[in-house]
Structures are given as C-alpha cells and as structure tokens.
Amino acid sequence: MENLNKLYNITLDIKSIIYKSGFKKNDVRKAYFENLFTIINEFYTGKVFFKIAQEIKAGKIKFDESILPFKKHILRIYEIADHPLLANGYHNDLNRKLFTDSFTNFETTISLCFEQIIKDDDISAIVKDINSKTLRLTQDLNDDQKQELLNELKKNTFVPLSRKFRYLAKLGEKKYPSDSKADLEFIEFCSKLRNCVSHSAGYYKGKDFEYEFDGIKFIFKNGEFLEMKGNNSYVFIKINERLTNVINYLNVCLLHIDFIQYPDDNF
Predict the structure, then answer these.
(1) Which residues pair with 89 in a beta bridge?
(2) Which residues of the chain have a pLDDT value below 70?
(3) Residue 78 in contact with residue 54, Cβ under 8 Å?
(4) How far apart are CA 193 and CA 98, in angstroms?
(5) pTM
(6) Helix intervals (H) in 69-83
(7) d(CA 146, CA 139)
(8) Are 192 and 209 in contact (CB under 8 A)?
(9) CA distances, 21 to each of 26, 61, 97, 143 (Å)
C-alpha cells in the first residue's frame, strides 16, 4: 500500500505542476507534464488493479449474487495475482509501457522545442557537420547546386536526440543547472533501452554496453537479450523522474522563449 500511496502522490504533484506552470496553454513545455500525468496515472491504476486482484485472491473482496454473470471475468482478475507467470508478465508490461511512453514524451518534447527554436544558420551548420563526408564529395558543384543539395539535406537529415539536447542546453542566459555530460549519457542509455525493448522485444543488436542506474545494471550484449541485474521494482519510475528532471533543466535554458507550440491533436 505504501508504494501505491507514493504513486498517488506523484500524480498529485504533477497536477500541481500543471496548474502552477507559467507556460501558456498548448505550450510544449506544459504539454510535457499533461502527457506525463496520463502516463503515470495509467501506471498507478495498473498497480491498483493488481492490488485488487490480490485482495480478491485473499478473500478480502467478496461479491454478491448480482456479479455471477461476470464470474469468469472476475476469476481471470484473480488469476493475475495467483499465477507467477501472469503476475510477472503483468508487471513487465506495466514497466515497459511506462518507460516507452515516458521516453516518447521526453523525445517528442525535445524535438518540438529544437525544431521551433533553432535558427536557420544553426541547423545548416548541424546538417553540414552530420553530412560532412557527402559535402566533401560534392565540392565541384556550383553554388546553386550546393544550396539545392543543402536544402535537400535539411529535409532528410536525421538529427540525433543527443545533438538536439546539446543545442537546447546551451541556449539562454542561464546555464544548464546540472551535469550536461552525465545527462547526455543517460539520454543515450535511454535511447538504447527504448530501441531494445520497443523494437526488438528485448533482443539487442549492437556494440556491447553497460549502464548502472539506481541499483540496476543494464547489460546490452550483441545478439543477446537485455539483462538487468539488481533489485529495484520501481526503477522505471526513477528513470521517468530523471527524464523529467532533464526537461526541467532544459526549461531553465528556454525561459527566454515565450511560447513553443504543441501540435493540435484535434481533440
């Protein structure tokens, strides 16, 4: 029950941040916390549902005869808490969704800020740096052809999240109020983790990599499934909190920006 109370309090804290936020309606920076509330609330209600299943199993929740038509569905709820395989799968799904939704929210926020704030000369410099080899091979083009090529590269060049983070962290008069290098390493870890759990069901392909966070060692080995060593059932909540801290740090650097539009979702 203690953990449920903590999750409940987190949702209240996020609500408070939304209401007290100085950002305008439909600002990306405010939308981050609105989306975050939904993400954490879904995780919280999922944990509440499991607790209810445990109470049904223990006989602490009883039903009268009116519930008989739903008996098979009630029994399925009971099974989640009664069967270790189902219980583990249930919690793993909650953790995976919490993390993937959290990182998607984080990545989208940074990308929207970057795309709306960056100056044309700055994006040109980044694109040229990313495509330096291609540009070296096309030195014989005339000026018009070079500009046409650069325009096409701007449309099609994938700017890594790490580059977007570094750009935003250097904006504004106020310095990024944390260790930007450590936060960048954390973001790159989260990118690897998201790709691994979301795109390949935990199977990792790439350079061997290890990252330790809040008592859990994440071990990525080429051609093997992700391994997590340690004991922290709420590590993904802690990852979510660290991502939110990074957003807060970046917001300090973006205080001079009055409004950053969040796309209209037509709802």
Answers:
(1) none
(2) 1, 153, 265-267
(3) no
(4) 13
(5) 0.90
(6) 71-82
(7) 8
(8) yes
(9) 12, 41, 26, 48
Consecutive H or E run containing 183 = helix 180-194
> Which of 43-49's residues contact partners 24+ apart within 8 Å by CB, and which partners?
43/7, 43/94, 43/97, 43/98, 43/237, 44/4, 44/7, 44/8, 44/10, 44/11, 46/90, 46/94, 47/3, 47/4, 47/7, 47/94, 48/4, 49/77
CB 150 within 8 A of CB 124: yes
What crossing angle do the helices spanning 180-194 and 84-117 adopt, rounded to 10°?
130
Q: How far apart are the first and last CA of the chain?
A: 35
Query: Which residue, 87, 251, 256, is CA-closest to 178?
Result: 251
- What pLDDT is attached to residue 1? 66
The first and second tokens of residue 66, run together, are 């009116």
Q: Tell me if 50 sits within 8 A of 90, measured CB to CB.
A: yes
Which residue stretches of 21-177 are H helix? Answer: 28-57, 71-82, 84-117, 120-130, 132-137, 143-156, 161-169
Note the pLDDT of residue 233.
83
